[in-house]
């Protein structure tokens, strides 16, 4: 019955001001929108075509009002849905479709930089963004026409443009100091970037406002936006600075001073953030009047905010985008059912070990069943990288698109023979150390530690859930079986509500456009998981299998547990050669989930 609940309409008009922004980030290929019926998915059912129609209506409204409206994206288009994870060619085509909506400022994410070919594709086709792809701290090494290798900016170093209303904008696009990028890519930390002559020159002239788009969190007393912010403030103490972050996958907002606002719009086309600000009037010292609103990505919200209806909401740009997406999806053949999933399996709604946790299904069922090496049928344990799973797997029809949504990466498997006594401690040791590629490289203060990406997500979401249960949520109970909030017997709900994001950011007032009850969230999930350990004596030598993406963490853990081993990459051999992690759920579904097909 929950699937028949109508999407709620917004109740508060957007606060349009002199300067307005729509921002997205971490879209990860979710251009077709969220298509499953399990809540909160219907809240995010709008595809990129409907976003394009919305943005275009919003541009018209801005124009009518005589105010600015800029469209900003903070990167991570790769690795997610079948549209971007089926093949390199698919992600290139999906990126072409993305660029059919003209963004004013767009930057790169870490998922465009894991593989050199992906970054090169972005570099070669940067023209599709009409000069608005800005990567202030990313270089790529390319073979120049004269045959020499040259390190060149991947996109524009900075942007200077005038808005339709004649306002001057200076903009930068940056990424956090990401270490796991491919060879041939270089990233300069923002504290170094601000010393570059080109940067100092770019900020010399006073624009009407600055925009910083960054694939990085907005929060953090020592976050990576701050060196740039401070450098600009040294020269222009009062010029407005608008910051658009990403990477954390959560809605967030913070103000660095009263002439700025920093907003993060979540992930996966679930949210479009609307940010607005007055511009300084005659009183140079008055704080800016700013606001932000996190709009759920669906046509009901889009229509309400643009005062359009079924008859006039869809515009040719949106229809063309939707059609192009459907054509690409059909050509990729990602919609054929592979099986019927018997349950929902969630990434963060249950602790690891719970039968409805996708991590549990991965370690206890999918990996043991699918990762088989024909040459090696001895005893083994497989250690998996939990971060390789990216989303929930929903009950019902399960196709290649769903498979890639859950597990988009191309990691392969490697093994080494080790004593079982040592092997049984490796995963625990790996979890003690954490996923090294995602731990900040700088020594951290307590405050910085608090701002670690994962921590933000965990604390933030767990808090929402606890608060809800303690305070407002006492007319509903969480039903484990249906994964829904159900009305407590005999009670009348205070308000009709749907499950969705409940945001607590650091900006004044309410940010969420629609009031929901929060999605249950369990933080502190392990970074690494393992298949059920074989029943063997400690002395027995077994195959210990690692995913190649986590190999550095695996080698480090083995060498910590027994420094005499001196395990190196060259000692590892392929296991189940040819098999990559992005096909295992499909293999499992084809065998185990055929009932109902
Ligand atoms: O090849 C890969 C690349 C990345 N991962 C995992 O992805 C996340 C980081 O993703 P963000 O969206 O940038 O937060 C991290 O957990 C990696 O382990 C991977 O598994 N394989």
Automatic annotation (TrEMBL):
<dbReference type="Pfam" id="PF21953">
    <property type="entry name" value="NadN_nucleosid_C"/>
</dbReference>
<dbReference type="GO" id="GO:0009166">
    <property type="term" value="P:nucleotide catabolic process"/>
</dbReference>
<dbReference type="InterPro" id="IPR041823">
    <property type="entry name" value="YHR202W_N"/>
</dbReference>
<dbReference type="GO" id="GO:0005829">
    <property type="term" value="C:cytosol"/>
</dbReference>
<dbReference type="InterPro" id="IPR014485">
    <property type="entry name" value="Pesterase_C1039"/>
</dbReference>
<protein>
    <recommendedName>
        <fullName>Vacuolar protein</fullName>
    </recommendedName>
</protein>
<feature type="domain" description="Putative 5'-nucleotidase C-terminal">
    <location>
        <begin position="344"/>
        <end position="554"/>
    </location>
</feature>
<dbReference type="InterPro" id="IPR004843">
    <property type="entry name" value="Calcineurin-like_PHP"/>
</dbReference>
<dbReference type="InterPro" id="IPR053828">
    <property type="entry name" value="Nucleosidase_C"/>
</dbReference>
<dbReference type="GO" id="GO:0016787">
    <property type="term" value="F:hydrolase activity"/>
</dbReference>
<dbReference type="InterPro" id="IPR029052">
    <property type="entry name" value="Metallo-depent_PP-like"/>
</dbReference>
<keyword id="KW-0732">Signal</keyword>
<dbReference type="InterPro" id="IPR006179">
    <property type="entry name" value="5_nucleotidase/apyrase"/>
</dbReference>
<dbReference type="GO" id="GO:0005576">
    <property type="term" value="C:extracellular region"/>
</dbReference>
<feature type="domain" description="Calcineurin-like phosphoesterase">
    <location>
        <begin position="21"/>
        <end position="250"/>
    </location>
</feature>
<dbReference type="InterPro" id="IPR036907">
    <property type="entry name" value="5'-Nucleotdase_C_sf"/>
</dbReference>
<dbReference type="Pfam" id="PF00149">
    <property type="entry name" value="Metallophos"/>
</dbReference>
């Amino acid at each position: 019955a929950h699937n028949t609940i109508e999407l709620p309409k917004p109740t508060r008009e957007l606060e349009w001001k002199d300067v307005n922004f729509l921002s997205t980030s971490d879209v990860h290929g979710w251009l077709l929108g969220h298509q499953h019926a399990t809540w909160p998915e219907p809240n995010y059912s709008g595809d990129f075509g409907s976003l394009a129609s919305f943005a275009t209506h919003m541009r018209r409204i801005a124009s009518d009002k005589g105010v600015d409206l800029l469209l900003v994206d903070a990167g991570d288009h790769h690795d997610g849905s079948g549209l971007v994870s089926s093949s390199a060619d698919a992600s290139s085509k999906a990126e072409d479709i993305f660029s059919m909506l003209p963004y004013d400022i767009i930057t790169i994410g870490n998922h465009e930089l894991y593989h050199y070919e992906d970054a090169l594709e972005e570099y070669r086709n940067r023209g599709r963004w009409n000069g608005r792809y800005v990567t202030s701290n990313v270089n790529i090494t390319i073979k120049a026409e004269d045959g020499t290798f040259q390190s060149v900016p991947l996109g524009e170093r900075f942007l200077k443009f005038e808005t339709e209303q004649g306002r001057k904008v200076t903009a930068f696009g940056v990424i956090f100091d990401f270490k796991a990028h491919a060879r041939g890519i270089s990233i300069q930390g923002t504290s170094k970037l601000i010393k570059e002559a080109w940067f100092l020159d770019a900020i010399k002239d006073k624009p009407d406002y600055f925009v910083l788009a960054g694939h990085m969190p907005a929060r953090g007393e020592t976050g990576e936006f701050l060196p740039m912010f401070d450098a600009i403030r040294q020269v222009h103490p009062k010029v407005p600075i608008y910051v658009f972050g990403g990477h954390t996958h959560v809605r967030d907002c913070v103000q660095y001073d009263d002439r700025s606002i920093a907003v993060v719009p979540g992930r996966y086309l679930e949210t479009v953030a609307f940010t607005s600000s007055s511009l300084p009037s005659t009183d140079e010292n008055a704080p800016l009047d700013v606001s932000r609103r996190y709009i759920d990505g669906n046509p009901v919200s889009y229509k309400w905010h643009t005062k359009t209806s079924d008859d006039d909401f869809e515009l040719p740009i949106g229809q063309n985008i939707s059609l192009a997406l459907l054509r690409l999806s059909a050509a990729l053949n990602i919609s054929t059912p592979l099986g019927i999933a018997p349950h929902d399996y969630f990434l963060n709604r249950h602790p690891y070990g719970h039968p409805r946790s996708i991590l549990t299904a991965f370690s206890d069922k999918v990996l043991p069943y699918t990762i088989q090496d024909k040459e090696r049928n001895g005893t083994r344990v497989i250690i998996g990288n939990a971060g390789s799973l990216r989303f929930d797997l929903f009950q019902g029809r399960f196709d290649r698109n769903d498979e890639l949504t859950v597990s988009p990466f191309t990691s392969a498997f490697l093994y080494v023979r080790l004593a079982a006594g040592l092997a049984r401690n490796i995963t625990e040791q790996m979890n003690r150390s954490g996923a090294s590629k995602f731990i900040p490289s700088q020594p951290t203060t307590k405050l910085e530690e608090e701002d670690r990406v994962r921590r933000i997500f965990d604390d933030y979401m767990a808090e929402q859930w606890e608060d809800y249960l303690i305070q407002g949520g006492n007319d509903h109970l969480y039903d484990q079986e249906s994964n829904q909030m159900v009305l407590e017997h005999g009670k009348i709900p205070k308000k009709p509500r749907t499950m969705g994001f409940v945001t607590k950011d650091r900006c004044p007032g309410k940010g969420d456009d629609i009031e929901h009850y929060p999605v249950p969230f369990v933080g502190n999930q392990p970074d690494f998981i393992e298949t059920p350990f074989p029943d063997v004596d400690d002395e027995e030598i077994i195959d210990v299998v690692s995913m190649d993406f986590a190999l550095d963490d695996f080698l480090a853990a083995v060498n910590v547990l027994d420094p005499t081993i001196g395990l190196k990459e060259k000692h590892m051999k392929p296991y189940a050669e040819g098999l990559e992690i992005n096909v295992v759920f499909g293999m499992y579904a084809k065998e185990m989930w055929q009932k109902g097909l």
